[in-house]
Amino acid sequence: MPESASPSPVVPPAVASPLKIKAIAERLGLGDDDWEPQGWFKGKLALGLEGRLPPRAGAKLIGVSAVNPTPYGEGKTVAAIGLAMALCRLGHAAIATLRQPSQAPVFGVKGGGAGGGRAALCPADEINLHFTGDAHAVAAANNLLAAMIDNHLKRRKTPRLCPETVGWRRVLDVSDKGLSSIVTGLGDRRQAPLRETGFDLTAASEVMAILALATSLEDLRRRLGRIFVGMTEAGKPAFAEDIGCAGAMAALLRDALRPNLVQTCEQTPALVHAGPFGNIAHGNSSVLADVTALRLADFVVTESGFGADCGAEKFFHIKCRTSGLRPSVEVLVCSVRALKYQSGRFRVVAGKPLPAELERDDEDALRAGSVNLQAHLEILRQFGLPVVVAVNRFPHDSSRELDLVCRIARDNGAAAAAVIDAFAEGGRGAEDLAQAVTAACKEPSELRWLYDLEMSPAEKIEALATRVYGAERVDFEPLAKRRMEQFVELGFGRLPVCIAKTQYSLSHDPKLLGRPRGFRFPIRDVRLASGAGFLYALAGEINTMPGLPAEPAALAIDVYADGTIRGLR
User: Fold this and answer.
1) What is the per-residue pLDDT for 415?
2) How far apart are CA 512 and CA 56, in angstroms?
3) DSSP label at 101?
4) 488 shares its domain with 371
């Protein structure tokens, strides 16, 4: 353990010291029965609070999405936090609702998800690590079901399950590629049937998606009971309820269902709750956090995972469709370096520093890569919402290039475009964006869907592949076709679809940058998440359990003798 030290600050100190969480709760008008402290700087809201709070007339929900990023992200969380703080600086009551970061990117390549610089959540180290234990509760519930299924199979309990139809996997919140495929039931005295299975990331699990989509404890319990386990020997579907596990899972998740109250470094309230991945799961924070925040503030800023082709599309088709939530504006975050990267002229390797060429003026590369920005604007406009582009400033960006991106955004249908510098300046650096967003909220909007639920699963996937990703057609592998036919036969054909694909490209292939066209979109498998309420399709080589890079971020993380954690990004 290193000696106690004060690491050199990379940015100026935050503009305000954090308040004790009781003061944040009081600012929101919450009484002692409305929340519970979880230490000095975080708390949990009471179960059912959203039902006791009166509706707030005119409250606006603002979505935040992005273009396809580099492996290190483009500051989407920084932009969301900065926007919420800027709205407060302009005299509005605002709350940010964000996902809890997964430990996989924290210890891997991308780093944490609590923002950074002067646009960060507090306490960032706790939010990026164990926080209030919600992710651990999700893993425990998920793995309890896996153990119960194996025990059920081993003891041949009723209903009799066909082992080859059981697809439920265990989860872990650390990237560990070696566990993606395993064999269980080994040993001299087997306590479980011998079968092939594996691990997924906790953030990619159906249980995490259920936590994020549940509207009450009763709804959570029902959804857990509806988890598809496999087929019986009689050819009937079996669910978690049938093997008697749903109640225990709900007990493990009871407190995890309660949204977590924290603050930004400018003392703006924030709810951080649930953390489904945007490239695998539906990629949005909890319905309960948004519903509650809309009764506590005039503006709620909620962030979707990755680009408009991933998190935003799933925000609309899954989260909004399920909950009845309706955003007024979508903010699209981009950066000069991300758009240059999308030109395909630079070699970027995950885990290694970005090439220095991305930091030099290169208007040709910027214009070439801006087709990615244009594509995301077109995607979002199909949903019927005004779009405001936020150009996140990085230290080496020139004013000329920043202005060029804003012009390209406005010329391609953005309601407005603003350069933000919340990382260095906090809420003050996002005031132009906040003014553009409040103006856009006055524009008429009506959320539209890109597919009808009555369409077949294949038709829904084709609608997304052609209308969102720009594919020419979809190629379904035989396994995917069989699974879709089975799920339709079982009565799950009307569910929305959640496509798991790379976040680095509009396509399935991370090497197809910019705005690829005319490609064929391959679907290798389709799985049922009946508790969450969607089918999810695996496209290309997407993995539900990634591995660590050659130089994991964990190598730089340590603790000083005084308890201060260093190295968290």
Assistant:
1) 97
2) 45
3) P
4) no
Return the CATH number at 338. Answer: 3.40.50.300
CA pair distance 383, 448, nearest whole angstrom: 5
Residues of the chain with pLDDT below 70 are 1-16, 110, 188, 351
- Which residues are 529's β-sheet partners? 534
Three-state secondary-structure class, residue 529? strand
Q: What is the pLDDT of residue 549?
A: 79
Contact (Cβ atoms closer than 8 angstroms) between residue 551 and residue 352: yes
Strand partners, 196: 183
CA distance 229 to 251: 19
Please tell me whether the peptide bond between 159 and the residue prior to it is cis, using omega within 30 degrees of 0: yes
- Confidence (pLDDT) at 545: 85
Of 200, 218, 253, the domain-final residue: 253
Distances (CA, A) of 487 to 222, 461, 497: 20, 14, 12
CA distance 161 to 138: 24
CB 152 within 8 A of CB 161: yes
- The token duo for 442 is 């006055």
| Closest by Cα among 404, 380, 245, 362 to 317 | 380
DSSP state of 513: -
Q: CATH number for the domain including 513? A: 3.10.410.10
Q: Please check whether residues 357 and 423 belong to one and the same domain.
A: yes
Question: What pLDDT score does 357 carry?
Answer: 84
Is residue 429 within 8 Å of 82, Cβ to Cβ? yes
pLDDT at 524: 96
The dihedral through the CA atoms of 79, 14, 567, 10 has a sign that is positive
User: Are the C-beta atoms of 533 and 496 separated by less than 8 Å?
Assistant: yes
- The predicted pLDDT at position 187 comes to 80
Give the structural domain span for 206. 134-253
pTM score above 0.70:
yes
Position 564 in a domain: no
**How does DSSP classify residue 467?**
I
The pLDDT of residue 12: 44
